[in-house]
Fold this protein.
Amino acid sequence: MKAIARAVLMCVMAVPLISQAVLAQDQQTKPAPLEAFFCKFQPGKGMADLLPVAQRFAKWADQQDTSYSAWILTPAFGQFTELPQVVWLGSNPSGNEMGKGQEAWRKSGGELQKAFDSVIACGMHSVASSVEINAPEGSPGDGVVMFTQCSVDDDGDYMQAVAAHKQYAKAMRALGAKGSNWLFFPMIGGPAERDFDYYGVSTFPSWSDFFAAYELYVNGGGWQKGMELFQDVTDCREGSPSVWDVKLVRRAAP
């Protein structure tokens, strides 16, 4: 389980609470809670079985948890022997809203939970604080997401890291990249060890957009700009990024 948690996307253990306090000082980086279930398919089951249950959940949330957004992720690039077969991500705009949703699920989600359990078995449930960096199109829909492990430099701090990521996201947009960006700071759940501080998260509407950004990074000046902005602040070369297909389950009601 430790190997899985290190290889995948986010929220694998509690980060020092001081990081949350530091982030909260900046009103433009208010963190939002995001939960993740790390799962494998039950024998003989697959996405064709999971999607109808997800659609039932979306209808349930329309009535019981209207501020909840959810996505299903399946691995596309990574060490597949270490990655879960499927990840469920769900987010509310605040801890208060997530708490209400959790209570509603415990009161009326029992039959749906049985339906999920018949399709997937989940070995970890974690929560991260999601900080928006650059998302001009709002919350993502279907598409592609990449998770990169990052560590704050000994001479840096979390607020400097957030500021550097915002500058870098703006620079990549100026070069023509179509990605949107967040940082995921692990908070609760997961194993007791981790060798990085947070995940840099980039989403793209399509694989064409993802690899266009790859080209800009490799041959268009992107990596040089990253080295310049992240120097002595944060290091996002901790391990190899993993890349996932994304299926939107439900977008929160406006």
Helices lie at 2-7, 17-24, 47-64, 95-108, 110-117, 158-175, 207-219, 222-230.
